[in-house]
Specification:
Elements lengths: L1 H12 L4 H9 L4 H4 L4 H13 L3 E7 L7 E6 L1 H17 L7 H5 L6 H22 L9 H33 L4
Antiparallel strand pairs: 1-2
Helix pairs in contact: 1-5, 7-8
Pfam families: PadR
InterPro entries: Tscrpt_reg_PadR_N, WH-like_DNA-bd_sf, WH_DNA-bd_sf
Protein name: Transcriptional regulator
Length: 178
């Protein structure tokens, strides 16, 4: 989904073709490699978006001794779908790392709606932690003590870290900084 949001957001700015977007992703930081985005994946997502009617080919650039470049534009249906895809991304995200493309495209969504989604996610995490945090007080036999302490420390640290950064993110969005 994040690749398709990336493509649609780039096409909101200007018509484009897959190879050019791939090149933009690889410079100056190789984000394409870090995200495992191959050229074939990018072409696949362009094709998928075109089949859904969210983008359409508008031009073919022909260059001597080079493959033809099919230029795409976003459709009205694509403009309408982009915010919905971004909201869905925030809803399905398991962590902030899964929200990066949505955060980079906040200009296409209602900030209050994103905050609402994130606050709901934060409440779910806090409620879940409240239910299982008593795990630290569970008495176990000597053979299980080390694993209980390890898991308790790991889960506690991870959950507290997640809550802290999600709270910070919500504040930044509310203040219009992201």
């Amino acid at each position: 989904m994040s690749i398709q949001i990336f493509i649609l957001s780039k096409l909101m700015e200007d018509n484009n073709y897959p190879y050019k977007l791939k090149k933009q992703l690889s410079e100056p930081i190789p984000l394409d490699e870090l995200g495992g985005l191959t050229e074939s994946k990018l072409y696949y997502h362009f094709d998928s978006l075109a089949k859904k009617g969210l983008i359409e080919p508008v031009e073919i650039i022909k260059e001597e001794h080079r493959p033809d470049k099919q230029v795409f534009a976003i459709t009205d249906k694509g403009r309408e779908a982009l915010p919905k895809l971004i909201y869905k991304m925030f809803e399905q995200a398991e962590g902030i790392k899964d929200m990066v493309v949505g955060l980079a495209n906040m200009k296409y969504v209602d900030r209050d709606q994103v905050v609402e989604i994130l606050e709901k996610k934060l409440k779910t995490i806090k409620d879940g932690w409240e239910r299982i945090s008593h795990f630290e007080q569970v008495k176990t036999g000597k053979e299980s003590e080390t694993i209980r302490e390890f898991l308790s420390g790991y889960l506690s640290t991870k959950t507290e870290h997640t809550i802290e950064w999600l709270e910070r993110l919500i504040i930044h969005i509310k203040q219009g900084e992201i």
